[in-house]
């Protein structure tokens, strides 16, 4: 990009011919706009002016941009001699200031979620056996609240433990059509996720989908949920 | 043409060894493409015969100097040798194998396709890329009321966590994994369940057993136990077994006493 | 509030009285602008439309915004049905910084990425068939970790192998609106190079003597592909 010195807008440059070249003004504006947009923090006037062609009046460029964005959904704001884009004040209700930003799932939660996905229907004791560590109730609660885990049924074994499964939301979030689309042993190996020596007898289970009730499982009823004190505030134990 | 291999600078064994510069080639097709390019004609005009000869000469040389080539390279060599014979020797009329022309077209197609994908890859990386040429908002604000999950996690995160966990556990608790030896009782149980499914027709034993043998390691013990169990069950009249010759599949079907309670 | 009126369009609103509706349309545009601007990643059309006043044609609002920003330093770009603001590509060299180096991919990874992009959904076996070599561990892994490849589903063939596809992040990263915008896609398809089968009539002359000229009536030749602009000089596959 070259900025010929002989065609410059009077309002944007300190000196130059009278001939107005909107093109140059626009180029300077475009560059300033992009620089401020891409920056993680407010950008100093000096930083911008160093990148504009010599002779361009940076203040005039920025004031022009400020005016351009004044009525828009996003405004160019000045903080001392630094500049930044901000959502227009009257639209700031849309922007969250609390820390409700989407968080990364903890390692423990990822593991529990994956175990349920592959081994469902699965009881909490089984999850712990596979993980080799105790699973805090909080981890499962978090996944239930996220809408990814659900109570599936009760195992027909002593104590009738509750079994867990994944939800439709889980499939949607992870882009799976059915739970059976989860990759198997060979595919995990092929994708480089499993490596090294895999002991003989190592298996990745084929998950049981919703339409395939396990033999030793009863579907969960509302009574079960009540009895077990599993009611979540919203009263929704199922999807 | 660039050298196709280099000599290893060190010999770490008693055998003199040469090392193919494997880093230079991504498999036999890549090597062929390299050779084809060195013919200095486009792929449509390439002499497949000359190409095959060049490749085979390369493999021969490699062998003479005792280079160990990956199996992929040798399979390709065998295929090209066959292609060469097809191209040179007139085919007998009743030959239903692929013609030399068909095989040559296949090879040319694969080379072209690979080349096209390489060009595509080049044009892809040369596009304006996010974070290099174009940039996203540097100071994003958070939009409230997103109905989507409060958690971010990709399928990759999920699968890698699972794979790492299972791998870790497999190493530390190998003994907890499923038993690898079939007991006779187990084999009996499985065979009896199978008998229920077979009905009256003869079926190969192996066919059923394979359903229960997911790893090669279990195969031997499963076959041994199942064979012993099947002899026992045949003696009890629960099944009948038959084999038409040595090493033929073992066939079995429901025996006269199949219905008797097992427990 | 001052708005440049010239880019507004009657089609922004489905029906209604001109003055009031124009106000609604402007408000809708500001809202959409603020929502997309606030986010670093592409924002879904559905998310935006849920936040716009009822009856507003979200697509028209977005197309209007896209046109409005087309010549500016920041552009509105579309990635499938998602929208994002991105700095204009022609300003790249002015904004580029040393630490903003894009991920370097190995030649193998790059090839696999291109094969998946052009052939998706594609199985690992098919990738290997095209490359003529086994995919080393870590290649697909790296691409999945980068967020460019994903498991797509399973092929309905014996063994139900898992198929791979590209992600929205892939499109976003390489500046593609949809997968149909892949460079040279139609030409490659037309040349039969994206199918597993050799296109009918795909024959090559077999000059057993090396100097025989190629026949003219070959339906697909390397020259054709070259002519169509699919080949860059040098034929280098890597950067």
Structure, explained:
- The complex is a heterotrimer, with two copies of chain A (239 residues) and one copy of chain B (263 residues).
- With 239 residues, chain A is α+β, with helices and mostly antiparallel strands.
- In chain A, 35% of the residues lie in helices and 15% in strands.
- A four-stranded antiparallel beta sheet of chain A has the order 6-8-7-9. A three-stranded antiparallel beta sheet of chain A has the order 1-3-2.
- In chain A, helix 1 crosses helix 3 (58-69) and helix 4 (107-119) crosses helix 6.
- Chain B has a three-stranded antiparallel beta sheet with strand order 5-7-6. Chain B has a two-stranded antiparallel ribbon with strand order 1-2.
- Chain B is 49% helix and 8% strand.
- Chain B has eight helices and seven strands; from the N terminus they run ββααααββααβααββ.
- Strand 4 (95-96) of chain A pairs antiparallel with strand 3 (142-143) of chain B, so a sheet runs across the interface.
Detail the topology: elements first, then pairings:
The complex is a heterotrimer, with two copies of chain A (239 residues) and one copy of chain B (263 residues).
Chain A: H1 22-38, E1 43-44, H2 45-51, H3 58-69, E2 74-79, E3 82-87, E4 95-96, E5 103-104, H4 107-119, E6 122-123, H5 124-131, H6 137-145, E7 149-155, E8 162-166, H7 168-173, H8 185-190, E9 217-219, H9 222-227
Antiparallel strand pairs in A: 1-3, 2-3, 6-8, 7-8, 7-9
Helix pairs in contact in A: 1-3, 4-6
Chain B: E1 5-6, E2 19-20, H1 28-38, H2 48-64, H3 71-88, H4 100-125, E3 142-143, E4 151-152, H5 155-172, H6 184-198, E5 203-204, H7 205-209, H8 216-235, E6 239-243, E7 250-254
Antiparallel strand pairs in B: 1-2, 5-7, 6-7
């Amino acid at each position: 990009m070259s900025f010929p010195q002989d065609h410059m807008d009077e309002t944007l440059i300190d000196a130059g011919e009278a001939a107005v070249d909107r093109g140059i003004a626009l180029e300077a504006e475009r560059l300033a706009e992009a620089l401020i947009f891409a920056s993680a923090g407010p950008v100093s006037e000096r930083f911008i002016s160093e990148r504009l062609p010599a002779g361009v009046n940076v203040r005039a460029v920025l004031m022009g941009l400020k005016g351009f964005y004044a009525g828009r959904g996003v405004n160019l704001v000045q903080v001392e001699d630094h500049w930044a884009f901000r959502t227009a004040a009257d639209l700031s209700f849309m922007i969250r200031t609390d820390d409700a930003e989407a968080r990364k799932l903890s390692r423990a939660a990822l593991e529990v979620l994956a175990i349920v996905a592959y081994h469902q229907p699965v009881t909490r004791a089984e999850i712990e056996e596979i993980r080799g560590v105790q699973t805090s109730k909080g981890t499962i609660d978090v996944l239930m609240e996220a809408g990814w885990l659900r109570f599936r049924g009760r195992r027909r074994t002593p104590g009738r433990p509750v079994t867990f499964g994944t939800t439709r939301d889980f499939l949607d979030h992870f882009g799976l059509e059915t739970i059976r689309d989860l990759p198997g042993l060979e595919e995990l190996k092929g994708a480089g996720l499993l490596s090294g020596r895999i002991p003989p007898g190592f298996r990745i289970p084929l998950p049981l989908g919703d339409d395939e009730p396990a033999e030793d499982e009863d579907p969960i009823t509302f009574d079960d949920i009540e009895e077990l004190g599993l009611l979540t505030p919203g009263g929704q134990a199922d999807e | 043409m660039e050298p196709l291999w280099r000599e290893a600078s060190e010999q770490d064994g008693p055998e003199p060894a040469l090392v193919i510069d494997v880093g230079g080639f991504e498999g036999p097709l890549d090597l062929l493409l390299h050779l084809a390019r060195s013919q200095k004609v486009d792929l449509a005009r390439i002499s497949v015969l000359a190409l095959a000869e060049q490749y085979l000469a390369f493999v021969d040389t490699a062998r003479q100097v005792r280079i160990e080539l990956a199996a992929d390279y040798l399979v390709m060599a065998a295929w090209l040798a066959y292609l060469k014979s097809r191209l040179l020797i007139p085919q007998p009329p009743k030959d239903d194998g692929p013609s030399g022309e068909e095989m040559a077209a296949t090879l040319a197609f694969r080379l072209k396709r690979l080349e096209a994908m390489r060009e595509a890859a080049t044009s892809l990386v040369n596009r304006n890329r996010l974070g290099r040429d174009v940039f996203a908002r540097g100071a994003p604000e958070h939009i409230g009321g997103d109905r989507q999950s409060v958690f971010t996690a990709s399928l990759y995160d999920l699968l890698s966590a699972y794979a790492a966990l299972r791998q870790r556990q497999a190493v530390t608790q190998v003994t907890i994994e499923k038993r690898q030896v079939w007991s006779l009782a187990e084999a009996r149980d499985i065979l009896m369940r199978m008998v229920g499914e077979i009905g009256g027709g003869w079926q190969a034993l192996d066919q059923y057993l394979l359903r229960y043998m997911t790893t090669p390691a279990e195969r031997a013990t499963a076959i041994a136990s199942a064979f012993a169990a099947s002899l026992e069950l045949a003696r009890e009249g629960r099944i009948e077994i038959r084999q038409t010759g040595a090493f033929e599949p073992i066939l079995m079907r429901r025996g006269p006493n199949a219905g008797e309670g097992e427990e």
